[in-house]
């Protein structure tokens, strides 16, 4: 029997026993999220550092920012093929990662650079010109 089929059957049995969402808690232990991301928070700025080794074509990575969400899509390809893998700790392949940011960021002030295997994304806090308080006008009615 195919070992992947056995693993799939085993997981289905565990899902049936523990519930459909049992594995969600272990997802990052079983399969770590790629790319790995560090976020450094300042009062009005975020610096997001994503480890994307082996990137030679910047068109193979896409970075999206929407309000308080950072999304990265792309491919990690180290360029080594053939042979049998004796140990693999640097994850490769297609990735799609969405991260919630600690606060909303401006759309007009975003920059990203790539050097030495790291994508560095600079984001700036969205500060609203409006106060949170909104005056409500009261109308006088004649009571009928």
TrEMBL record:
Gene3D superfamilies, per the entry: 2.60.40.790
Coiled-coil regions listed: none
SHSP domain span: 28-141
PROSITE patterns: SHSP
A matching Pfam family: HSP20
InterPro entries recorded: A-crystallin/Hsp20_dom, HSP20-like_chaperone
Domain of life the protein comes from: Bacteria
Family: Belongs to the small heat shock protein (HSP20) family.
Protein name per its UniProtKB record: SHSP domain-containing protein
Species whose genome carries this gene: Lentibacillus kapialis
Lineage start: Bacteria, Bacillati, Bacillota, Bacilli, Bacillales
